[in-house]
Amino acid sequence: MEFSQSNPAPSRVSKILTIISFRWHFVIIALSLTVRFSEAAGNTGGGGLIGVSQKCDREGEVFPLPEILRNKCFTCLCKGGFVECEKQSCPSLQGCSIIPSDEKDGCCEVCKGCKVGNVTYKSGVEITQDCMTSTCSAGVLTRSPVQCYFPCKNPAPPKPGQCCPSCNTCSLNGREYKNGEEATLSGDPCVRCKCEMGSMVCTKNSCPVLACPASSTYLERGECCPRCNRSRIMYLPRTACFLGERSYPNSNTFRLDTCTNCTCVENTAVCERISCPPLECQPIHQAMTPGSCCPKCVEPALPKAQCIFNDIIYKNEERWDVDKCRSCKCDWGNVRCTEQMCPKNKHCPWGYKLKILPGQCCPECVGEEGVCTVFGDPHYRSFDGRVFNFQGACKYLLTSDCRSKSFSVRVRNDARESRAFSWTRTVTLKVREGRVTLGQKMRIKYNGKRVALPFSQGSLRIYQDGYSAMVETGVGVKLLWDGDSFLEVSVPHSMQGRLCGLCGNFNGNKSDDLTTRRGSPANHPNAFGKSWRVGGIKACSRPEEVKGPEPLCQKNGMTRSKAEKACNTIKFPVFSRCHKTIPLDRFFKSCTLDMCECPQGRKCHCEVLTAYARACQRSGIDIQNWREDTGCSHKRKWQR
């Protein structure tokens, strides 16, 4: 038996492969696979596929890896005309004390589970049945009876399917709890209370037996049970159990402490542990007697008519709030506090995000606004997150309320003497309050007349926001325009499923965002974009039927070198805090495309940096002074 840390040196395998298929003929791809294994903390590491971009033509189709590189940890899909490979993320194994060296779930390491008879439990699972709680923790199954606690004088008998009596209200220390909310007692964090259908049920469970040594445990403040702070990757024979720093053969029974007796059953330590009942006295008046399992109240506090908390005197039976999550009560000289427990690892459905509302303790799922972004040549990111390029040089419906017609946004794209690309030239917003036109160099018009900022008309507001102009409307639609080609349109969550145009339908499914005006799916962004053209042919700065020549970068290596040099600014340290949150690849590719056809004297890469900085800001990372550090702080002249 050997204990080993999961810290092998990185390994690199490089191969030159020739792939022949019905879509790709004699395409040579250079792939380099780097695999790292983290210290036995649960992830398989920060490996990745590195190589030359491979084109594809079936959007969303799974691209099989060559047999020599077949790896369950990677999935490759056709996205935006290129094959993109993503590494499967493995769940964290932090706190798992035993990781079997010969067990994996796909490509991920797993924490040792528990098996008793024909029943298998995953580590971390807790099941309560017949008033007994069974908890699996890294190969140790702890069974303990449920202890009941009721914070009221006359509890109701246990309901069918429940073990404990319940209080007829969900009031605890003067605070009302909603159905499903949990609370814990500050005097005993192991007592958990939950509001269920208008009744408060409180229980106390014993802590599960841990497989790690006592010297490798820690207890967080306010928590009931200790946790393991280190992990071990081990080869585990099927004939023994591992507990602490010892091994026990199968069928061996042993006493772990005065409250716990264990038996090794087929490589799983099954431990029966006594649950100690909650005590009414404060912890300072609790003590253990020799040979006993549970503490007892040995020195009851004398009744008092008042309590002192944070240097404030409270009368008997008086209640107060410590913060949004904690409330206390004076109980004959004893301060008894309860704390509302927020659910851990709460996930929200698409279109919602966790947010703590004013006056509340726990975050709730709140509807998120939809955001559509347009920048550069132009590049589009729909409300549902679909990314595509469309170089049409006409006027198009960007987005509109296709049900109630409460607003519409149209864009006019200009070729700017480019042979292949185009840029957004003007933006027109129509709402009940009037028509707003956003033009080049911050020329702002309202109903055809230029206006100075700030400007307001009814519920319509237009004002300067840094280097950009912000438009806010009464229907909740907002536009952010930088006076060049960057445009961000945000709509309230209530408009889900009501929109149409180049920005998509905002229904949470990005696979159907390329839906034409006629309601049919388009097989290419060009066909999709053309279907949303508005206005006559005079609005086009380049005929749609004429396909421009290839970008200069594909013909001129020097042009491409200059483009990449300008675009490398996105890798500057000023953006480093955001690099892990917002990947660079898509923005860097967009930047090089834009720079290849950038008109003389323009800083086209700054539009991509604007889009990247804005994406970082929406993710909660505000990048300061990036314009100064990247040479994009050229002053904009506001036109009046």
TrEMBL record:
Domain VWFD intervals: 370-541
PANTHER family: CROSSVEINLESS 2
Annotated compartments: Secreted
UniProt-recorded Gene Ontology molecular function terms: BMP binding
Protein's name according to its UniProt entry: BMP-binding endothelial regulator protein
Top-rank taxon: Eukaryota
Keywords, ordered alphabetically: Repeat, Secreted, Signal
GO BP, sorted A to Z: positive regulation of BMP signaling pathway
A cellular-component GO term for this protein: extracellular region
Residue stretches making up the VWFC domain: 168-229, 239-298, 305-366
